[in-house]
Write a structure and sequence with these properties.
- This protein has 346 residues and is α/β, with parallel strands linked by helices.
- The protein has two domains: 12-151, Response regulator (Rossmann fold, 3-Layer(aba) Sandwich), CATH 3.40.50; 160-344, Orthogonal Bundle (Arc Repressor Mutant, subunit A).
- The chain contains 15 helices and five strands.
- A five-stranded parallel sheet has the order 2-1-3-4-5, with helices on both faces.
- Helix 3 (73-84) links the parallel strand 3 and strand 4 (89-94).
- Helix 12 packs antiparallel against helix 13 (262-275).
- The chain is globular, with a radius of gyration of 21 Å.
Length: 346
């Protein structure tokens, strides 16, 4: 695989993941003719896609909507990428131009949708435009996105107390998400199909007023930091009793965390804190919280360099409003009795 060292600072690091290895290679070779693009090689194996993106600090992923033999496999990859590396933009190569395909591409987090009927030259222009912060689509795509946005009901934003609205099974799914599991792993753990897992997640997102796994993760972590444990329901206690925080699970999380994935680092910290089998678990929880915090600060510094002063001010104002709302909600909540374990905790 290509190394990112030695490349010009202004080059855009692009990775292509088309619906077959030969198509991936052909499109990658075509993009290499653009001197402003540094094309990252990928071995074509689905399990290595996200690790390759993360390890090579890919700026933009060009991915087929159909991947891994599934018609929407590429969309799922984009969702997962957005949850662990939101700075990496995605352009989806659509195999179908029907209305639903276009809308689903934007909903998955794509910053651009590209038709295979267009030229390689136009594709290069698409990549440069998306990297610079623009949204790429034809007029029909923009029209569909606006119509979908206008017809979407406003989802109420609820605090972490909204976790009380979740069913026992939904809480089990949330617990698995917090542990950093994929939909397939959640399905294997709970005896559900991936389609059923997705349906549960959609219902959880709707009830809690969040739109991604990262928002869900931060919601659960923020409540535990306020002295509460949103997942200390019967469902999560059962999960702990059944050994879901055993060494095998923690080792699996640790592998992802050590690859530098912030969401996995937070999930690992929460897993140690939830298990609390001994003093070492508390130390490990604190260590991974520190690592995740440092990684977040690094990402923040990188992102700051790409924003204008006005954009930074706007983001700070929005963050201040959100934090004030959460602080107010926390202050108005009934005080929960202190836990004995918390006396020696972080």
């Amino acid at each position: 695989m290509d190394s990112i060292q030695g490349r010009a600072a202004n080059e855009i690091r692009v990775l292509v993941a088309d619906n077959s290895r030969i198509h991936t290679q052909l499109l990658s070779d075509a993009l290499k003719r653009d001197s402003g693009l540094a094309v990252i090689n990928w071995d074509g194996k689905p399990p290595s896609l996200l690790p390759t993106i993360l390890s090579h600090q890919v700026d933009l992923l060009a991915i087929s909507s159909a991947l891994n033999g599934h018609s929407a496999g590429g969309l799922q990859v984009v969702r997962e990428l957005h949850s662990v590396q939101p700075a990496t933009k995605a352009v989806i190569l659509l195999d179908s131009q029907d209305d639903e395909a276009v809308i689903n591409a934007f909903r998955a987090g794509a910053k651009g949708i590209f038709s295979r009927e267009s030229s390689v030259e136009m594709f290069c222009k698409c990549i440069h435009s998306v990297h610079s912060g623009e949204i790429w689509s034809d007029n029909r795509g923009f029209s569909l996105a606006i119509e979908a946005l206008a017809s979407t009901p406003v989802v109420r934003a609820v605090s972490a107390d909204g976790l009380n609205l979740l069913s026992k099974r939904e809480l089990e799914v949330v617990q698995c998400v917090v542990q950093g599991m994929t939909n397939r792993e959640i399905g294997d753990r709970l005896g559900l199909s991936q389609h059923t897992v997705k349906n549960y997640l959609f219902r959880v997102f709707d009830k809690l007023g969040v739109s991604s796994r990262v928002e869900l993760l931060f919601m659960t972590l923020s409540q535990s930091n306020n002295g509460e444990d949103p997942l200390s329901s019967d469902a999560s206690r059962t999960a702990a009793d059944e050994g879901r925080y055993d060494e095998k699970t923690l080792n699996s999380l640790q592998k992802s965390a050590e690859k530098g994935v912030p969401a996995a680092q937070l999930a690992l910290a929460h897993a140690y804190l939830a298990r609390r089998a001994g003093p070492d678990d508390l130390v490990n929880a604190y260590m991974w919280y520190l690592i995740a915090t440092e990684r977040t600060l690094q990402a923040r510094a990188t992102l700051t360099r790409t924003l204008t002063p006005n954009q930074i001010d706007e983001a700070q104002q929005k963050a201040g409003t959100w934090l004030a709302r959460m602080k107010k909600a926390s202050a108005s909540a009934p005080n929960s009795p202190p836990r004995e374990v918390a006396k020696s905790a972080i």
